[in-house]
TrEMBL record:
Alphabetized PANTHER family for the sequence: GAG-POL-RELATED RETROTRANSPOSON, RNA-DIRECTED DNA POLYMERASE, PROTEIN KINASE RLK-PELLE-DLSV FAMILY
Name of the protein in its database record: Retrovirus-related Pol polyprotein from transposon RE2
Organism of origin: Vitis vinifera
Listed InterPro entries: DNA/RNA_pol_sf
Highest taxon of the lineage: Eukaryota
Taxonomic lineage from the root: Eukaryota, Viridiplantae, Streptophyta, Embryophyta, Tracheophyta
Amino acid sequence: MVHCKPARTPLPTGLKLRVGDGDPVEDLHGYRSTVGALQYVTITRPELSFSVNKVCQFMQNPTEEHWKVVKRILRYLQGTLQHGLHLKKSSNLDLIGFCDADWASDLDDRRSTSGHCVFLGPNLISWQSKKQHIVSRSSIEIEYRSLAGLVAEITWLRSLLSELQLPLAKPPLVWCDNLSTVLLSANPVLHARTKHIELDLYFVREKVIRKEVEVRHVPSADQLADVLTKTVSSTQFIEFRHKLRIENLSTLSLRGDVRVD
């Protein structure tokens, strides 16, 4: 793969993988070891979280089709070897989070994928792309579970900052692109569509009442967590990657600004 043709994105737009697609992979150990190594890469490359999480789901019985996707991820890495998570010095300690979900996206069991990311000032400090363990019966159910997961993460981060004697000047801000979810966070009305997430409803609502978090609506086009839940076009992917502060570090000086030759 050293001399492979680089790919612009880790996954092609609209890719759908299933268990048993194609013939069984010939090199089972190679598949597992490569995917295992890619998991370490996601520690500093959040834009790979969704794609690596996807190929991890076929570790038991991978096929040649799944192996092609792994090689696609490697081709993307080959073209972005100099990229990494850029952290810059800043006095801004505002916590800002984005959460999203892709409802019933798995073709094998119809489970959903949720994702979130958290910024401390301008710097990305936490992110997750996760396939849910249970089937959600509605889109609002998975969106609210994703919101509750992000609020729990922000609560922990806020506690950590407090222990470091870095209190927040204002409540953390959470952006969600599902308007119904945003409205429920302020007014948790229980009915047939929401009774399955009653605990999540009251958990988030409690944080909102105590002004420990503020939930707002963001247009889908500006939802940074979108890249953590589904495949997007190459144009969108590159834009989101930049907003997540994944940059070409070879163009930066040791001071963190753009180097001029």
